[in-house]
Design goal:
4-stranded antiparallel sheet; mainly beta
Amino acid sequence: HDRIWVSANNGISLLDPESSSITNFLQNDYFMDDAHFQDISGELFYGGYNGVVSFEPTEIIEDLNIPKPRFEQFYLFNKQVNPTDTIDGQVILQSSIDNSKEIELDYLQNSFSVTFNGFPFNYPNSNQFRYKLIGLHTDWVYPLGSNRIASFTDLTAQNYELHVQASPGNGKWSEPKVLLINIIPPIWKQVWFQYLSYTLLV
């Protein structure tokens, strides 16, 4: 089926009308809209600020190796927390943040950050990321540039799920990496305490 090649100021894109997908290549290069040519053999030529790029479209193999997102570091009030660190008498991480499925925080520990990356690592790193904190966000958040951190401040005490996805930049996203984050409310806001207080009053 027919596929469409398009140059832009952030690379060259392959549009597939059948699957409605877009695959991006050479995203660090700037190409001019009117500087393109296809010779009699079918080879494509694109002109950009860094010179001319040419390729045979039928030989282009899309990168199907979608990176797997990984959590790197956990920060509480901008201070890095390492496994087995004791904070306010509590060990938040029993193992690395990447190997943690769930963490529990006190209601006063409601401002934190999580950094992430994708494996295998690309160099230069063209991986793209998006995250969503279920319980706070309804839509995905797309970090700008090379920023790979999700930061949250003054969260309400409740249960959250942090979902992070990675993409090699071709519009295809990985399965989400999930971290359960439970912020425990103060004792006077917990159901059992309110029930007990009501019972004693009655």
